[in-house]
Queue: 2 jobs
Job 1
Amino acid sequence: MNTNSVNNAGQHQEVVATQTELPDAVAIVKIALDSAQVGIWVIELSTRKFLPSSRTKALFGFSDQEEMSLADALQQVVLKHRKTVADSFELALKEQSNIYVECPVVGLHDSKDRWLSITGGVSNPEGGNGYFSGIILDITQQKQNEVKRSKFIGIVSHELKTPLTALKAYIQLLNNWAKKQKDNFSIGALSKVERQVKKMLAMVNSLLNLSGAEAGKIPLNKQEFILNELIGDVIEEMLFIVSSRAINFVPCEDIAVNADRDKIEQVLVNLISNAAKYSEKDMPIEISCTGSGKTVEVSIRDQGFGIAPHHIDKLFLPHYRVETKETENIDGFGIGLYLCSEIIRGHKGKIWVESEVGKGSTFKFSIPV
Ligand code: ADP
């Protein structure tokens, strides 16, 4: 047995540190921690000797047979973070306080990039045999997800918020002008547009507010409402935006749903604007709603460019756009359908599309009643 390590493999072996016995509890807890792939480390307060478990060594790219001091481990921490981690250990040891740090490391032998979280605290601070001990977790996957998420949020903020803010300012300018002209129609229309822009800004802001583990999950604020009425309101608003279009609506009976009204509105707006965006200007859009007892299904059909089968299963991924001759001049960020699917998923519903190139697409979603 390596006397300088807490051996992960042998449950019956003593946990030995250069002739020093660690508390029995460590051995018991170790069994549970090993099975969860958690690395353990102990620093003997009197000697400052660092005792890593085999898993801890592996996380820094060391083999089980090698010795690994705290300084050796710190050498594997990416330079930019090394001082912070070293200082955190020093401070915690000096003040006998807890430690929690997250840092990127590059494995010694495997050269693998990993993100680790290091947590620890002091035990027996009053006694002669004090230990500073803790655990190490591999949080690489979590960190990668965080990077993707913040990248996504960064794009949303840049791509959506900036033009929306400009749009809002121009609407206010136009509104002032319309008031001077006493143009009641424009005043009315502009106030509706302004309302929509404000809603979109609020939505973008709420997206930006998603943080930490909650990010990526859209919070829902559910209430009961009649779906037909919402669809009718959205169509009325959309007619201002896609004025050249005929939007035909075949409603279902008045079904009350318990859902987030604003978010379902957002789904409808996204799907209807896409139907308009990806079809010729004189083509109608058909909307229908059907109830089937437990769920209610809404369908938005256009007679536009359609989507080739190999794109269909990727459409709802963030930033996915179909690049064709017809769509190359149409602006978009590829997040509308992703947001729709997240919202519908949050409602435990389903969203899908049936489409044929050159004939058109029908986007459908269903939510529980
Ligand atoms: P955006 O429209 O901003 O690109 P979306 O997430 O709303 O982002 O849509 C993703 C892609 O799906 C679009 O780029 C477009 O290629 C395709 N798409 C969406 N709706 C339709 C539709 N009704 N008809 C044809 N293609 C569509």
Note: The first strand starts at residue 16 and ends at 17.
Job 2
Amino acid sequence: MDYKEVKRCRVCGSRKLRKYLDLGKLPLANCLLSSPKEKFKKYPLQVLFCEECSLSQLSIVVDPSILYSNYPYHSSVSSTFKRHCFEMAKSIKAMFTHPKTYDGWDGPQPNPSYGKPIENLIALDIASNDGCALEQFKANGFNVVGVEPSENLAREANLKGLRTHCEFWGEKELGWITPVDVITASNVLAHVDSVYHFLLFAKKKLRAYSNGFIVIEVPYLKNLIEDNQFDTIYHEHLSYFLLKPLVLLFDQCWFKVFKVEEHPIHGGSLRVFATPYEREADASVQAFLNLEEDLGLYSFKTYKDFSKQAERIKSDFLDALNFIKNQGKKVMGYGASAKGATLLNYCGVNSSHIQSIVDDTKEKQGKIIPGAGIPVVSGDNFDTNHPDYISIMAWNFSDELIRKTESHKLRGGKYIIPIPEVTIQ
Ligand code: DWN
Ligand code: ZN
């Protein structure tokens, strides 16, 4: 069987899991087809709410080797994301300064280097993709090492001189990785079933000397609910996190969450800092927990209401495309994203509505979106086909995608942005 049913919450173990969203049986969003005749499977896409810890999670786990052995997603395609990684590396670097004294310090004076930056830091990025974040940590003076399970991406990172090991993190002891000062894991914990293994393996790799810590960045369920981001629900994303289940998970792995930030990337992400060593937690931790409570994010009703929004957006998007189609106008998409594939298939959109989707990722060009059957093409197709509308399929990068299609706008072309509401501009 290439997938298994989820019977217990992966964070707290509870069996009190209640379904609140069912997007039907959909193809695997990133498993693009090489030809229209290529066979593909559809899998149930349902989200369950844990009544104990408020974790949202899919009702199944698809075999990761099917999802990630040859992964078409390249983080470095987006300059927005690159900038985001640079800022993250810069802010993390500033957190490493020599303490007043070290454990067991018996010098007559406080540590002479007190307050100065700690040099020769080592950063490990888990699921480092094509080395996008590694590059930015290197630019901030870190020594870097990556772990990436997709051969194509690990190879690309190593060719850029970014030492990357092609492994799944948390599956087995990676003894050859020496202790590091900081571990980052951006957009990966949501993809992991054995979240305890993941963190316990990370704990072993954090250096005590620098009070090492881990930085986990995940799409924030608060934004998913507030901004109708149901298209970010697909088989790669097993969990949809709030801070509450994350704090529980870290606690149970002897980590202490000491700082939390919210960042706009990918539609709204939560950045959680946690360490196995002594570190004072700041006010941000309790502030986010209070916010989640105030927003009703620990109540099942919030999620039932959200599922009605998804149905509404679905009919709005299909109505808009059918109206444009009946006018004989031409629509192309931009950004053959996983979220885009989910949206197209959930809404029943196909190549009669959107004739092709441009993507700047070379590996995606020439492929076909499974289910919707829409071909992925290169950017020059905008200028050869002159669409009347461009449907932005990666709304989290709307600004960047609209900036890159200036000529379409100058021709009087319009944009369809489907999330958080279907808008035409
Ligand atoms: O968690 C995940 C997120 C971080 O990225 C992964 N599971 C998979 C992936 O999800 P996604 O495919 O929905 O992510 P994006 O980043 O919204 O996808 C953007 C798509 O648009 C990519 O295929 C690249 C493409 N793109 C482009 O062609 N030109 C993006 C930009 C910014 C561009 O200029
Ligand atoms: Zn739970």
Note: The mean pLDDT is 95.
